[in-house]
Prior knowledge:
The chain is mainly alpha-helical. The protein is built from eight helices and two strands. Strand 1 and strand 2 form a beta hairpin. The chain is globular.
Amino acid sequence: MMLEKISLKESLGVMFAVSIAIANVTAAKLAWFSIPFLGEVSVPAGFVAFGLAFLCSDLMVEFYGKEYAHKVVNGTVIALVAAYALIFIAISMPVAPFYGAHEAYITTLSSSSAIVAASIITIIVSQNIDVHVFSLIKEITSGEHKWMRNVGSTGISQAIDTVIFITLAFAFFPFLQGGEPMWGMALALTIVGQYIVKLLVALADTIPFYLVVYSKND
Length: 218
C-alpha cells in the first residue's frame, strides 16, 4: 500500500504537538549558560523544542489562520495531560527484579505536581497568546514585514511563558505546598536569564520561518 502524501498543514500540527511533548520531557535536564552582564543561568534543556513549537504555531497562523492554530494548541494541551497520565501510570507499574534503571527512569520522566501544573497552565496561556499576537501583527502590517510578526509574537509570548512558568513552578505552587519558594532577586534573575536564552532562539527562528514561507509560495 502506498503511503499518502502528508500535507504541510498536517505536518505542522503534528510537529507542534511532538515538540511540546518532547520539550516537557527534555526539560528534566538543566542546561548552563554564561550571559554577558547577567552571569551564569540555568535553563531547562527543553527550550530548543519549545522554540520549534513556537515556529510551528507561527507557520500555522501564517498559512491556515489563527482559528486552526488555536485548535491545534488546545488539542495539544489535552494530549499533554494524557501524556503525563500515561507517564505516571508507567512509573507506578511493578518493576522487574533485573531492571536496575528504575530510579533513573523516574528521575528522567517524572516531574513534581508543581512542575506539571505550571507547565500545562503556561502552555495554554503562552501558546494561545502567540497565535493571537502573530495574527494581530500580520493584520496591522497588512501582511508585510514577516520578521516583525515572527519575532514580535514569539518574543512577547516567550516573555509571558517564562514569567508564568518560573513564578508558578518555583514560587507560587511551592508556597502553597509548604515548600521553599523562590522569591525576590533570585526569582527575577532566573526569569530574565531564561528569557534572554529563549529570545535568542526566537530570533534564530526567523531564518527557517522565511525559508518555509518562501518555499511554499514558489
